[in-house]
């Protein structure tokens, strides 16, 4: 058997057991209380009543495969942060949160994969050219390591906050009970992930340098503009012909109540989420850029609405 030498493993000692962030310890406790299992806790039999044609079925399989890829992308990201937390002797509750984060993103993947399978086939990886250019490089660890530990986690929760608002709409949109339950359970987990970022905002701001704040702003802009708005969160930044193809799969999935957002609604949802986030992080001296491609203009001073979930 060939043994391949990998990177050196940092010493985990000394282990920090003194609780530094009690609110994170509380998140860890809540995560244990709110465990769920995709195979056991979703009413999968409700798919038996779904009557859709082959075109809609294929569209839903494509959309849910994308959802599964994105959830899976969070797993290696979390694993790298956990490794970093151990090497940097971060508090135990932060490591415990990251362990839960990895487990939760893994079950989000599993649930999304199972939905795609119900629609006739999970696609193990992208085949469309616009996705092939984005998905495999979605988690680029070299990019991640340009930020310090807490700055990186902070940036990640900005993205989780945007995707949380999309998920609220996808929960509302779903009519198949199994899909509604998948989105509801994922939302509950994501709520804790977003809460983690807010705790870091309150307690770890001094660890983030001015230079890093500028870096958070530019990395946020680059990832949203060149990746997430190109077929992941919305299709606005794809070339016209690809917008049609990518948008149609989401539109059909949304129109049949199968848990997607309509491409025509996504810019509005994201614009509102951005305006809310922009206000939240402004006191931290982080100025999120504007995205005119989704109607997010600097001269718009109206008060942003609440997250979609709070409207119901
Ligand atoms: Fe997730
Ligand atoms: Fe998450």
Q: Per the principal axes of the C-alpha atoms, what is the gross shape?
A: globular
Computed over alpha carbons, the radius of gyration is: 20 Å
CATH class equals Mainly Alpha
SSE run: HHHHHHHHHHH
Number of strands: 0
What does this structure look like?
The chain is an all-alpha fold and 312 residues long. The protein has a single domain, classed as Ferritin, CATH 1.20.1260. Helices cover 60% and strands 0% of the residues. Helix 1 (22-33) runs antiparallel to helix 8 (177-203) and helix 3 packs antiparallel against helix 4 (92-118). The protein is globular and about 60 Å long. It binds fe (ii) ion (FE2) (2 copies). The site of one fe (ii) ion has 6 residues, from helix 3, helix 4 and helix 8.
Topology overview:
Elements: H1 22-33, H2 38-41, H3 54-87, H4 92-118, H5 129-132, H6 141-144, H7 149-173, H8 177-203, H9 210-228, H10 240-255, H11 266-281
Helix pairs in contact: 1-4, 1-8, 3-4, 3-10, 4-8, 7-8, 7-9, 7-11
The structure holds fe (ii) ion (2 copies).
In short:
With about 300 residues, the chain is mainly α. Helix content is about 60%, strand content about 0%. The structure holds fe (ii) ion (2 copies).
